[in-house]
Amino acid sequence: MSLTTFPFFHVAAFTSFYGVMAAGGTLVTMRKWDAGEALRLIREHRVTHYAGVPTTALQLLARARSEADPLESLTLLSTGGAPAPPGIVAGLAEAYGERVEPRNGYGLTETCGGVLANFGAEYRAHPGSAGRPSPVTGVRIDRPDAEGVGELRLRGQSLVRGYWGTRRPPAPPSPRTAGSGPGTSRAWTRTGGSPSSTGSPTW
Q1: Which is nearest to 114 in space by CA: 2, 199, 27, 10?
Q2: Which of 111, 63, 79 lies closest to 5, judged by CA?
Q3: Cα-based torsion angle of the residue sequence 136, 149, 118, 107 in order, rounded to the nearest 10 degrees
Q4: Which residue, of 21, 48, 52, 113, has the fewest CB within 10 Å?
Q5: What is the tens place of the pLDDT at every residue in 141-173?
């Protein structure tokens, strides 16, 4: 039972929507965001999973605290669509221990949804991380500086090959990209993001 508050014109909604469909679950939706109404829906429908942008997740947790609501049916709080502040994980742990699992992800319209995910114990250990890539996504940091910060590049089966009305020939393979990693294309997609590796399998 999932309360999904992403707007359906946003690619983050599809990551949540298709996951619920694949599991044969039930989707609870809202016409517009209201933290009090979200709490009521969670109670009424015994919602187990929440999905939304970090701002709405923080408002939900603040409203639950103000009403002393234990969110007793909730087992997963998932955020995406914007960077999640590390405080979300700490707030969840302080209020609910490990009963409510935190989840965070990273994706783009061009990736057809989330391609990195951080959740559970690993998310608690690395609350500032976007997590591990999906099994079909290649990830690398291009031209990292002395601190390991560079442009995030992705490739894989879920990435778009181009934009409507444009003709973009595939980039020629280079020694760094040819013949390695998942996906059908040897070209890497530039994201414009500037992450760094955490020194662990997370990003």
Answers
A1: 10
A2: 79
A3: -60
A4: 21
A5: 888 888 888 888 898 888 887 777 776 555 544
